[in-house]
Specification:
Blueprint (H helix, E strand, L loop, with lengths): L1 H15 L1 H38 L5 E5 L3 E4 L2 E4 L8 H10 L3 E16 L2 E10 L2 H5 L4 E4 L4 H5 L4 E4 L1 H8 L8 E4 L2 E9 L16 E5 H9 L6 E6 L5 H15 L7 E4 H44 L1 H9 L4 H41 L11 H27 L3 H6 L2
Parallel strand pairs: 5-10, 7-9
Antiparallel strand pairs: 1-11, 1-12, 2-3, 4-5, 4-8, 4-11, 6-9, 7-10, 8-9
Length: about 400
């Protein structure tokens, strides 16, 4: 009952001091909206990173590669190791690492492709059947490279959507022949569009030609080397175990030398999320400055309100109100006005978050920045509004509760 009375009294006070109430609500709303937007930007960045991670196989993947150049004695030199990653290593990983689900070789080369007089620079991706399963990237039409294609060094290829648009004007290219560095290959599939990746140096995912790694080795390379081995584990909990198994197998097969490097998506994600969290915290702290300013404004206005209502406080105490009742009354007013500002700030924050996401999507070519409003950001905003109301409202409420009835009634 007292809560209802205090709430009713608070709204009456707000109505009687409309401009003052509006200014407090505005300052709180701006601060809350800023916090919402900053936290949403962090959540959007995390979602964007996760979307890109899923494109390369998700958190269950890791890879092995041999550096062409290494740093030694303060300078970069050619890697002196006589060992290279080969197709035999891929088979060993598949057969002798129980925690590994799939493994696929990768070899990259820039190439020129042409069809009917039209030419295009693209990237050759030499790999095997497991590659599109690890990356969960499938063909839009046709099929991907098969194990039979590897066994028979088939002169076939799968192309990206950008190549279809540029060389075939979007028409179905299945069965047609293109020249890859002046060698003819039959197109057996077209990959689903993936757009640009996070790494600008890699270019568009859709501007690639995929072919059997054995064909690439015989037609272009003249050796059995592979640049990279992409690996997917069976379960998230065995990633570290799988990495150790792969290291042991490769070292045992290559004279005990650890001539390769390993990257683990789980570790990359941890580092990325840590950086995003730090940036988010800095942005939230900056946005919180306006919240503090709003809180100081609330403190100032509540002190003025106490001064203006001294006779009312004295009268209430004279008819039986206790100091606790007076303190709760003014705290209720302070918290309510901050919560109203928080709710309005959340609504503004929703709109600003969407606007910022649209703006970033237009500014960053090839990316659609996700508009993400998390429950955590909303709850944080509401809690921040209530905390500001209590923190900055307690002193005026305490000051009002300590007034003596007779002196308050006589106050002019």
């Amino acid at each position: 009952m007292k809560f209802v009375q205090n709430t009713s009294s608070a709204f009456s006070t707000f109505y009687a001091n409309g401009m003052r109430t509006f200014l407090i609500v505005l300052s709180i709303s701006i601060g809350i909206a800023g916090v919402i937007v900053m936290m949403s930007l962090g959540a959007g960045a995390q979602k964007l990173v996760m979307n890109e991670v899923e494109k390369v196989g998700g958190p269950l993947t890791f890879g092995v590669y041999r550096e062409g150049r290494i740093r030694k004695g303060g300078r970069w030199i050619q890697n002196p190791s006589k060992h290279f990653l080969m197709m035999e290593d891929v088979e060993l990983i598949r057969n002798e690492c129980p925690s590994v689900d799939m493994a696929a070789p990768e070899t990259y080369r820039p190439v020129n492709v042409s069809y009917d007089g039209e030419q295009k620079k693209t990237r050759l991706q030499a790999t095997s059947y497991d590659y599109h399963l690890i990356r969960e990237w499938h063909t839009r039409v046709g099929r991907f490279i098969s194990d039979e294609d590897l066994s028979f060094w088939s002169k076939v290829c799968v192309v990206g959507e950008e190549i279809v648009q540029d060389l075939f004007s979007g028409l179905d290219p299945i069965g047609k022949e293109i020249k890859v560095s002046n060698e003819r290959f039959s197109i057996i599939g077209v990959m689903e569009s993936r757009g640009k990746g996070l790494d600008p140096g890699m270019g568009s995912e859709d501007n690639q030609v995929f072919m059997p790694v054995t064909t690439t080795q015989t037609q272009f390379l003249g050796n059995d080397y592979v640049d990279h081995i992409l690996i997917r584990v069976k379960d998230y909990d065995v990633i570290d175990q799988a990495v150790n198994q792969v290291k042991k197998v490769l070292m045992r097969a290559n004279g005990g030398e650890e001539f390769f490097e390993v990257w683990v998506m789980k570790e990359e994600l941890k580092s990325t999320n840590r950086i995003i969290l730090i940036i988010e915290l800095v942005l939230v702290l900056i946005a919180s400055v306006s919240l503090i300013v709003g809180g100081i404004g609330t403190l100032n206005i509540m002190l003025v309100s106490v001064t203006e209502r001294v006779p009312e406080i004295g009268l209430r105490k004279a008819v039986g109100a206790k100091s606790w009742d007076i303190r709760i009354q003014f705290l209720t007013e302070s918290v309510l006005i901050c919560l109203i500002g928080s709710i309005i700030g959340i609504i503004i924050g929703f709109g600003l978050t969407h606007a910022v996401a649209v703006a970033l999507s237009k500014y960053i070519d090839g990316f659609e920045w996700p508009s993400v409003i998390t429950l955590r950001s909303v709850l944080t905003s509401v809690a921040a509004g209530a905390a500001i109301g209590v923190f900055f409202g307690y002193y005026p409420a305490s000051r009002a509760s300590k007034l003596k009835p007779i002196e308050a009634i006589r106050h002019k």
